TrEMBL record:
One Gene Ontology term from the biological process aspect of the record: FtsZ-dependent cytokinesis
General function of this protein: Essential cell division protein.
This protein's GO CC annotations: cell division site; plasma membrane
Entry similarity comment: Belongs to the FtsL family.
Compartment(s) where it occurs, according to its Swiss-Prot or TrEMBL record: Cell membrane
Bilayer topology annotation: Single-pass type II membrane protein
Name of this chain's protein: Cell division protein FtsL
Residue intervals passing through the bilayer: 41-61
Biological source species: Heliomicrobium gestii (Heliobacterium gestii)
Amino acid sequence: MKQATARVLDHFEDVRPASPPPVEPKVVPKVKVSGKNKRQVVTAALLLMTCALAVVSQYAAVAVQAKTVNQLRDDLTKEKNALDRLRVDVNRLKSLERVETMAVTKLGMQAPTYDKVLAISAVNGTAKTGASPAVDGTHQGAQKSGEERAQAAVKEAEEAPVGDNPFVAAVTRLFHRITFGML
């Protein structure tokens, strides 16, 4: 009788992994894209990029204009401040006290004495001469200030006859008040 013998296994066969069966690569079917579709996609992409570029350029233009506006506002503020300083200087230089002081000290002028004042009446054309501060009720040594002289001119204009027509008289007095007796 024959004895059955078992096959002898090499112990390395058990340890070695079995090689996987060969895998065939998966084939992805190609999607056919027509030339018309490609052109539409490219055109859409270009249109989208153009729109994005236009928006970005508009934002850049707005930023530049905003910077210019801010610079102009700063310049305007500086010019307004300079104008205010100049107005203060003009008011200081135009003050009557300063002008009178400069006229007396630097130019050697004298204040008026009111000796030779000629008052002309508008109605009958007569003239009064020799009006002096003594006639007006002030004493000889005092001199009138600018305000006192302006008030006296307005008072004389109100007292001056302007004719028989009351409307003309009212209009004339109004213009004398508006122009501080300069007309």
